[in-house]
Amino acid sequence: MEKLYIDKELWVIENFLSQEEIDALMVYCLDENDWYTTMRSSDKLIMNKYVGRDLDRDENGNVLSPLGHNFQHDVPLFTKPGGIFERLSSVLPSTYNPHSTIQSYKPVDQYKAKKDYTLEWHYDSYEDGGVNETITGAFVVYINDDFEGGELDFKYKPYLIKPKSGMLVNIPVTEEYTHAVRHTYKNIRHVLYGTCFKDITPGSYKTSDKC
Questions:
Q1: What residues make up the domain containing 163?
Q2: Contacts for 70 with CB less than 8 Å, ≥ 6 apart
Q3: Helix, strand, coil % (nearest 5) of the chain?
Q4: What is the rounded distance in angstroms from the CA atom of residue 75 to the CA atom of residue 32?
Q5: 209 inside domain
Q6: Residue 93 and residue 139: Cα distance in Å, rounded?
Q7: Is residue 118 assigned to a domain?
Q8: Three-class SS of residue 100?
Q9: N or C: which terminus of the chain carries fewer CB neighbours within 10 A?
Q10: What is the gyration radius of the CA atoms in the chain, in angstroms?
């Protein structure tokens, strides 16, 4: 797997996913069950799904943290030797926190959109929960590319990354690489995404208020 460096630690690996893996993931993407709206989506256009996990919800219907609350099924696509988890761990900054989360961006009407981005400007570095776990890496893997838009835009850099099915993008976790996701048109944009942490602790897992 060859890393193609764009700038410092901003790099991509094309064809990170095989066509067989893409096809298998699309089965989960097209299944309408178990999706929930992420807390980062003010306009409710971004949905998450934990693959292979039975989700628990609180009394308000919010998805509870996957750690300790929900049963994780073995999904060989992710967990087998040479599977997605192992390959991600081999290329991402340490320490990769495996979780099989699909994130999907619904299309918008380009003539009615009141802003430019479905996911607004942000960068993925923070301390959380009083545990001081620090993010060391963030990534996205594009599952499909049969849509318009959905580019990864950088606020302070002259880069615009166009989604390509099967491609992994490593996104540096500093303010210099503040980024946003442009609106998607005419189809749904499906990705795998995740983070790496200096220390894997209970607070490192994504909860309903961080997803």
A1: 4-204
A2: 50, 53, 54, 55, 56, 64
A3: 15, 30, 55
A4: 19
A5: no
A6: 10
A7: yes
A8: coil
A9: N
A10: 16
Q: What is the pLDDT of residue 141?
A: 98
Could you give the number of structural domains in the chain? 1
Side-by-side strand order, sheet with 168-171: 4-7, 10-13, 168-171, 135-142, 189-197, 101-105, 46-50, 36-37
Question: The CATH number of the domain where 49 resides is what?
Answer: 2.60.120.620
9 lies in a domain? yes
Question: Is there a contact between 127 and 173 (Cβ–Cβ < 8 Å)?
Answer: no
Place of tokens 């893997």: 141
Specify the pLDDT at position 127: 52
8 A C-beta contact, residue 27 and residue 144: no
Give residue 203's pLDDT.
45
Q: Which of 121, 161, 201 is nearest to 11 (CA)?
A: 161
Residue 66 resides in a domain: yes
What is the model's pLDDT at position 65?
A: 58
